[in-house]
């Protein structure tokens, strides 16, 4: 048993060290590295190992699988057919105990954590501001990966105060240490401690391809919101907003948000940097959402999301959705008997492509997935204020986001213009849905607020003979099974029901 575990964990340090394409400018090429001898023996080597740790979260086993596991169970997407890819089981809540997207995500996540622990154990605090920054980045990455893991495999903190089982906490490089699952609360407490440490060590000079003080603050805002520590969620959101480092993209530029390199986008707080050499082509996130000479184009904007966004035609966020029309032989758009364009379909499902993961720097399948951005900070603050009873403050932040989206007048909320809503919290949650769609947050927003995921629209998620799929927050498949092979390697791991 121990030998098998060693084979699992040793590649982590090797991969963090032996990475192709060393660059003299780590700021420009944040995911390249040096040789293994240079990696663990000197401060310069540990800086290179840190670049290797960023490389772990860029790996498709991490980034692509996390996106599928977090976003595909939401009510923002509609799958247009079955697929041999296990993403189908994430989408329709028919999880398996052995499923490659959970297997690979789990393993890559703990490899990344192991890599951060190597640096944290070897790099002494206080040597220099530069090395403290490096140390802080590893504390941030360790916290971020634990956070992603606990949200995939542990129930939302707010459902039971974190009493249910979360994931293993790994804070050392002892390969013989096979811990059981900690509770969700214990994992969250560990994450908060790591993020506070990271913020104390880091400065503010790094681009959004790297962690910095404000990046740690931004994730702390999200973490505390999930923990229902609303004053803390507001405090950290304010630290980011008031830092002056970030500004909302102008209204006219909003539809092009995700086409810009993240370092040039003043709204992006942290993104998982992809350059042209990292383009995953058919295996990219955008490939499932759009086909434009490349890409499968099988996952579409759901009817329920389109109904919500279409309430106001001037909403610039509608432009992230591209309806696809049938073409005549001459390439012109085909029109029906009513004179309107005929929507193209796949297996009878209308095609509405999504562009949030496409066209970075003009490349169809290239994108740097945005993990944290300024708009979320305003919406975190809005939700926290709504739950504290500060309705006016909550609506003020919602309206700020709506104005940026091009809305004005009667499209803005007030105490006298609730547009049919009876709760300010409902207003905020729908605005989060509108603004953060397809950014891997909707599933968590629904279930941590103890609501039901209602998917009452066409798609292959529908049970036979039914026109809706409803997943209550108490459903066992709100979380995924711990990969069966990991339980074999570590019998202390208890399976989810």
UniProtKB/TrEMBL annotation:
One of its GO terms (cellular component) is cell outer membrane. Keywords: Cell outer membrane, Membrane, Signal. Gene3D superfamilies: 1.25.40.390. InterPro entries: SusD-like_N, SusD_RagB_dom, TPR-like_helical_dom_sf. Its main location: membrane. Residues 249-497 form the RagB/SusD domain. PROSITE patterns: PROKAR_LIPOPROTEIN. Residues 68-225 form the SusD-like N-terminal domain. Residues 1-20 form the signal peptide. It is found in: Cell outer membrane. SUPFAM superfamilies: TPR-like. Belongs to the SusD family. This is RagB/SusD family nutrient uptake outer membrane protein. The lineage of its organism: Bacteria, Pseudomonadati, Bacteroidota, Cytophagia, Cytophagales.
């Amino acid at each position: 048993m121990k030998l098998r575990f060693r084979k699992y964990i040793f590649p982590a340090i090797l991969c963090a060290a032996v990475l192709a394409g060393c660059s003299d400018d780590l700021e420009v090429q944040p995911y390249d590295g040096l040789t293994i001898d240079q990696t663990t023996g000197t401060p310069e080597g540990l800086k290179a190992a840190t670049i290797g740790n960023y490389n772990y979260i860029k790996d498709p086993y991490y980034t692509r699988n996390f996106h599928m596991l977090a976003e595909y169970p939401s009510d923002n997407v509609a799958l247009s057919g079955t697929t041999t890819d296990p993403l189908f089981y994430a989408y329709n809540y028919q999880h398996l105990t052995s499923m490659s997207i959970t297997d690979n995500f789990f393993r890559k996540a703990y490899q990344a954590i192991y890599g951060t622990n190597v640096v944290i154990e070897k790099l002494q605090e206080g040597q220099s501001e530069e090395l403290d920054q490096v140390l802080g980045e590893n504390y941030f990455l360790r916290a971020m990966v634990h956070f992603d893991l606990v949200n995939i495999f542990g129930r939302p903190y707010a459902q039971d105060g974190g009493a249910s089982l979360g994931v293993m906490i790994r804070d050392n490089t002892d390969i013989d240490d096979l811990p059981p699952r900690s509770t969700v609360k214990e994992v969250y407490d560990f994450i908060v401690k790591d993020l506070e440490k990271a913020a104390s060590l880091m400065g503010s000079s790094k681009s959004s391809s790297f962690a910095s003080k404000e990046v740690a603050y931004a994730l702390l805002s999200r973490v505390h919101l999930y923990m229902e520590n609303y004053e803390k969620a507001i405090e950290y959101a304010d630290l980011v907003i008031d830092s002056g480092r970030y500004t909302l993209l102008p209204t006219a530029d909003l539809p092009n948000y995700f086409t810009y390199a993240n370092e040039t986008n003043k709204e992006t707080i942290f993104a998982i940097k992809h350059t042209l050499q990292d383009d995953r082509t058919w295996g990219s996130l955008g490939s499932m959402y759009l086909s434009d000479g490349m890409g499968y184009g099988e996952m579409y904007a759901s009817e329920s999301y389109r109904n919500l966004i279409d309430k106001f035609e001037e909403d610039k966020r509608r432009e992230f959705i591209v309806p696809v029309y049938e073409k005549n032989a001459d390439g012109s758009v085909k029109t029906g008997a009513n004179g309107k364009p005929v929507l193209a379909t796949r297996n009878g499902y209308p095609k509405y492509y999504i562009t949030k993961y496409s066209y970075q720097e003009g490349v169809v399948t290239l994108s740097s997935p945005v993990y944290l951005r300024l708009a979320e900070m305003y919406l975190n603050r809005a939700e926290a204020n709504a739950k504290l009873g500060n309705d006016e403050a909550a609506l003020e932040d919602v309206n700020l986001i709506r104005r940026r989206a091009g809305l004005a007048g009667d499209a803005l909320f007030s105490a006298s213009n609730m547009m049919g809503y009876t709760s300010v919290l409902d207003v905020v949650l729908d605005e989060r849905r509108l603004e953060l769609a397809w950014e891997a947050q909707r599933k968590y927003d629904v279930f941590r607020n103890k609501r039901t995921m209602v998917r009452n629209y066409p798609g292959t998620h529908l049970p036979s003979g039914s026109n809706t799929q409803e997943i209550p927050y108490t459903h066992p498949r709100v979380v995924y099974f711990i990969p069966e092979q990991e339980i074999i390697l570590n019998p202390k791991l208890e399976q989810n029901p």
